[in-house]
Amino acid sequence: MDLRNMSLSEFVQEVASSSPAPGGGSVAAYAGVQGSALVAMVCRLTLGREKFFTVQAEIMSLLEAAVARQKTLMTLVDEDTQGFKFVMEALHLPKNSAEEKMLRHEALEKATLKAAEIPLQTAKECLTGLREMPGLLSKGNPNALSDMGVAALMFKSGLEGALFNVYINALGLKSLETKETLLAESQALREEGQQLFEECQGSVLSQLGGML
Question: Residue by residue, what is the 3-state secondary structure of the chain?
Fold first, then answer.
């Protein structure tokens, strides 16, 4: 069953089951979905209000980006689980002859790389969400400031969680060059994400302090 068609309760039950998938990668993507949904909500709470008339174009742009990112991440929720299944299928291929072993090795390497690339895309989408948060924090409706803070948290969780899944799959690759490339890119994403999140968190706490 496509995970995107499950109810929230069904998805949670599926994650909690003894099946290894859906697991952390799908949950990380769903965290990004939630972050994007919160951004869209804040944008809609800002649009059409006279007080924010001068920033309507910027907020509309943020809304369109959030809606598109939400759809992409929803797809990645399901794709991450499919990626894991492809790895398991490759592991169960026969290996009785030299030819079978070679074919199994090639299939496993290809499936493992795909299983690493899917969460890498999730991480990039969540990082893009974090990159757009400063604009929302400076121009969005301040009555939804707490929602903006949670959105940043969701993007950071999605980013960090996705990268854990990149790491564990990258370590299973035989190609040292591919492995090192994935790990280096992941580290760069993690570092930028941490910096952006700290800036967002500081902005939220600063603005909340001004309201107290």
Answer: CCHHHCCHHHHHHHHHCCCCCCCHHHHHHHHHHHHHHHHHHHHHHHCCCHHHHHHHHHHHHHHHHHHHHHHHHHHHHHHHHHHHHHHHHHHCCCCCCHHHHHHHHHHHHHHHHHHHHHHHHHHHHHHHHHHHHHHHHHHCCHHHHHHHHHHHHHHHHHHHHHHHHHHHHHCCCCCHHHHHHHHHHHHHHHHHHHHHHHHHHHHHHHHHHHHC
